[in-house]
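Sample entry (136 residues):
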Amino acid sequence: MAKAIPVKQAARFWLFTVIAAVVLYYGYTISDYLIFNPTSSTAMKWLGVAMAPIAILPWLFVLVVSLSVVDEYYRRVVMVGTSVAFVLDIMFHMAFGAAVQAHVVSQSYYILELGAGIVSWLIGVSLCLAYYRLRQ
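Predicted structure, serialized as tokens:
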């Protein structure tokens, strides 16, 4: 039986999840700007380097909290979904590499690694949740 989470706590968690995703996206965008801007000083480039791993911390907190507040059923869905997401992410990167080699996509394009990872994680967990729901 699933745990009941109070609406206020669920709303707070949802809001923090949205904020974590925004921090993650814009943290990497700002980090890329600081690192690759030719007018940036060395200190600003180091700030950009430091910002990249710091931007992931809110998202990791969301993952840890999401695993701590759910029961065994949802823990299993998240763990299996994470495994599926790993495979999806590898397949996405292989397809992107093949598209670049086939000159379908410009070689100057790149994938935001963490963004692709988050999207594949959300797809993997959603697929596993649907699978486990339909299986019952």
